[in-house]
Design brief:
With 459 residues, this protein is α/β, with parallel strands linked by helices. The chain has twelve helices and 16 strands. The strands form three sheets. The chain has an eight-stranded mixed β-sheet, with helices on both faces. It has a four-stranded mixed β-sheet with strand order 12-9-15-16, with no helix packed on it. α2 packs parallel to α3 and α3 crosses α11. The longest helix has 18 residues. It is globular, with a radius of gyration of 22 Å. The termini are far apart.
Length: 459
Amino acid sequence: MVPVLGCVALLLAAAAAPATAELDYRHHRYDGLVRALVGVQRDCPFISRLYSIGRSQLGRHLYVLELSDRPGVHEPLEPEFKYVGNMHGNEVLGRELLILLAQYLCEEYNHRNPRVTNLIHETRIHILPSMNPDGYEVAADQGPEMNSYMTGRANAHGIDLNRNFPDLHLTAQKLQGKNHHISLPTEWQRQVEQETYAVIHWMQNYNFILSANLHGGAVVANYPFDKAEALPGRGMYRATTSSTPDHQLFQKLARVYSYSHGWMHSGTNCGDHFPDGITNGASWYSLARGMQDFNYLYSNCFEITLELSCRKFPPESELQREWYGNREALLAYIEEVHKGIKGMVLDENNNGIPEAVISVSGINHDVTTGTGGDYFRLLLPGKYTVTASAPGYHNQTAHIGVNENPSSRLDFRLVPKAGVRSTSAPTVPPGQNASSTAVQRRMGPRATRRRARRQHQKQ
């Protein structure tokens, strides 16, 4: 067991942490990473929270920095977003970019940058710089010049964490088409590593909507599915696209990052050729038990994988250039969490209905409401037919148009089925058509949150 930083050590780390007035263009060993995150929390105490989602195999904390106007609180209609870095211990650029992103957001918020202020006020951002701190330390012992393709890639047990999530594709095949909110297999906890377990438990506790997983070794935005529907036969490898029901949406998300990046969109980095700087995972190479497929099949979260550098462990001299190449893309991708539709699913007493299902006609992938009854459904611009359903209630269907900006608001008020006891007098007349009670509006994020708070105060 390696020493880990406790509460007293965190206080000492805060005192030793550098100020965020200047961004920190250097590699961070574990203690340095903790000091950097504590430094952000110290400089932005009212918009940040540092928490651990668990420990690595060798006992290092998997620290997450949250940035929000109400850290530690999920506000109705405010989406949850996450970045995950350093899943492969020797792919280190993502780790350093996420530290820089946290420092940048804090610094610019203190300088009242309107874009950053709006982003933090309207989004709950979670940053996990290192999912594999044990592997990083192995890679860092060799350093940038001597690092090989595999040294430090796996965790302390020698397991590749991006091949360690439950394979929900197998379950999806048995369910004959369902590809959302698939249950975990029996005794799944015994089949995953400690770091993987921590991330899955994290996903169970936060209703993440959008995510990206930062890697290295190429420069491309990779979107699901990673696993091919059927593995190629013997002989020459045949590329095969494995599409999700949200294939075009995932392509758009990948392009947002690629075209906001300094050079990813060229598609010709590292000797590769990726049109627009994006690729379907399976069309590149098939990968089973990966994290981005798991996000899509298990939760409400849409995740892509960002390969950010030709060199897995670039020297410190390249970090500033890489930061400026990725900064706009990191911000623009977070902003995508506000696209599509969102709203509340309420009962007749204005109480939120948790785990209500939101279905979009023509897209075989549902999302569910969070514990307070709010939902978020990423969608491309267009016209949609949306249905809300929950056990014990009549389904409700509404039509809505979606533009590029901002999110379209669509609330549902579900009517109980006959025989279902109500806790108080219904606010929807029993004879009224349920679909007519859907409320559509288009408004900015702040206005939607004020309305949701007023509804909450009336309860």
